[in-house]
Amino acid sequence: MQQAGATDKLHRCSWAQSDPLMQAYHDSEWGVPEYDSRALWEKLMLDGFQAGLSWAIILRKREAFRKAFKNFKIEKVARFGEADIARLLADPGIVRSRAKIEATIGGARAYLAMREAGEDFSDFVWAPVGGKPLQNSGEIPVKSPLSEEMSKELKKRGFKFVGPVIVYAWMQAVGIVNDHAAGCFRRNGVPKSGSQL
């Protein structure tokens, strides 16, 4: 990893050029292949909260989301009831959308139903690409045939706020597709197999 002073001169994807928080996220996390099922689920739920908002808003609130949703421990979130929904709707640290909160609780239940049926979440999301990131070489789309298919399969399993555009953004974030721009210093430097920087 580059020294802190040197990072200011690095060429990054355009969306990560100016905001220090977005730069840090871009440089260390975005596009790194994630294979942990729980972490994949957490990131999908946060991308659902992003719908209609900017990722910078969600990133700034991420720790508050983690606190509010019990560190995204799936079994705990799946047991949330009306009292928890009321608590979350009163929490100024998160995005207070009943539909998105209920979708996250439903997403925890859908995840557990998949697991009970013998379907591992990580295997499910990585199977269409053979477990290896796709390297995008053309224009960066907002959705793809793969995100449309994944969206359909997630909806079939009971997930909400998983339209093809949200799913594509999530696929970029978790490294299923490498969409770092051609001149970005991370394009060829993203660790493989979920290794850390």
Main beta-sheet strand count, sense and barrel state: 2 strands, parallel
Secondary-structure element order, N to C: HHHHHHHHEHHE
How would you classify the helix and strand content by structural class? mainly alpha
Global Rg: 17 Å
- What general form does the structure show? globular
> Percent range for helical residues?
40-55%
Structural commentary:
- With about 200 residues, the chain is mainly α.
- It is about 50% helix and about 0% strand.
- It contains ten helices and two strands.
- The protein has a two-stranded parallel ribbon.
- The longest helix has 19 residues, at about 100-115.
- The chain starts with a helix and ends in a 19-residue tail after the last strand.
Features:
197 residues; mainly alpha; two-stranded parallel sheet; 10 helices; 51% helix; 2% strand; globular; disordered N terminus; disordered C terminus
Topology at a glance:
Blueprint: H1 4-7, H2 20-28, H3 37-50, H4 55-68, H5 74-78, H6 82-89, H7 98-116, H8 121-126, E1 134-135, H9 145-156, H10 164-173, E2 177-178
Parallel strand pairs: 1-2
Brief summary of the model shown:
This protein has 10 helices and 2 strands; from the N terminus they run H-H-H-H-H-H-H-H-E-H-H-E. The protein has helices at about 5, 20-30, 35-50, 55-70, 75-80, 80-90, 100-115, 120-125, 145-155, 165-175, and strands at about 135, 175-180.
